[in-house]
Each structure stands twice: as C-alpha cells, then as structure tokens.
Amino acid sequence: MHIGLIGGIGVAATMVYYQRLTAAAAARGVPRLDLTIVHGEIHELIRNNLADRKAEQAQAFLPLVTRLKDAGCDCAALSSLGAHFCFEELAALSPLPLVSAVTPLDAYFVEQGIKRVGLLGTRVVMRTRLYGQLAHTEALALDDEIETLGQTYQEVAVAGTCSASQQDLFLDAGRRMIAAGADAIVLAGTDLNLAFDGQDPGYRVVDALDVHVALLADLAAGRKTLSDL
C-alpha cells in the first residue's frame, strides 16, 4: 500500500515519522516502502488551531491530499496530533481515506493495561483530552498550566529543537501527572520526541507517534487493510 503523509507540521516530527516508519516497515518485511510526503505550513496550522478554524484548515490541507492522490497514494495521514483538530472536516472532503493517529490510541491503552493517562501536547489536545476520543481510558492534564505547556510545545514544534529548560518543563509536568494518578504519560504531540528521546524520566511514556507508525506500517505490509480501520 502506498502511504501518503502530510509533513512539515512540524519538520522535526516529519523526520521522526520517516525514520520510524521506514524502520517499522522493514521490520515487517516490506521490501520497498511506497511513501510520499508533502509539506504543510505549520504557521497556518497554528493560527487555525488556536482560532478553532476547522473548516479553513481542512481546506488548506485538501490540495495536499489531492497531490498525494495524484502521486498514487492509497491513503493519507497527518504527521501532527494537533492537526487532527480538523480531522472530521478534512475526511469529509478528502479524495483519499485518512488514517487517524488518535483513533488507535484508546484500544492500544486497553491492550497495554493503561487505565489513566497524562497528556502532553497542544493546548487543544490537552483541553479536549485527545478530542474526547478516549472511551475506555481516563485522561488528565495539568489544567492550570495548559497555556504555558501548550505555548512551549508550539515553540518547540516551530523551532524543531528543544532547550534544556523546555525539556525540564515537560519532564516535570509528566512527573506531576504520574503523582496525580496517571499510569503513563502520552506524548500527544509529535514533536515531543525532541524532549523525551534518550531520556529516562522515571515513569512510563507512550509516544502516540509510535502507535500511528505501527498502524501505517501494518497497512504498508498488508497486515491490515483500510476496511479494518
């Protein structure tokens, strides 16, 4: 299956998607991964996300999905959890099936025995508790600090780098959510690998990107079909 990916939102997340998807496909015995990536505009996404302009962002993504279809892709995916705020609006317009990064998470948590998660990501992801899509898993966030954490995450995503002080902020937020009863911290922002990769924070961390990549790799390998989603 030819996978289409809307990248650039941000660039660091796109690079990690590319690295991990190619590795996951190879591990599944895919001899040649069919993958096309188009570049989205992160500043436009941020403006529309903060203003809750779902229809406008869906229209901005539509030409990119169309380009993926013209390139021969069988499906499309967004390389940003934050971009999923307009997922339904885009799906209604899209000429390709969209593979959600949010939908598989609840089942994954159940499978892993995770009953309560702490969320880090964009303001909207944290406020809406992953867009209200967790039916079997309780989610918490540091509500009084969503603005600070969300702004910091936005700065990291745009810059494609994470400073020591920014990293400390995220790691400490995770510790406090674990202390509040979370079984694991979910990196519900695809650029958070910049803060957490190579770290041992002393608590369980689930990178939502890895769950999405596993699903895309299963599709590429023929282990799953779009009708399974």
UniProtKB/TrEMBL annotation:
Pfam families: Asp_Glu_race
Alphabetical list of SUPFAM superfamilies matching this protein: Aspartate/glutamate racemase
Any one GO molecular-function label of the UniProt entry: amino-acid racemase activity
InterPro entries attached to this UniProt entry: Asp/Glu/hydantoin_racemase, Asp/Glu_race
The name this protein goes by in its record: Aspartate racemase
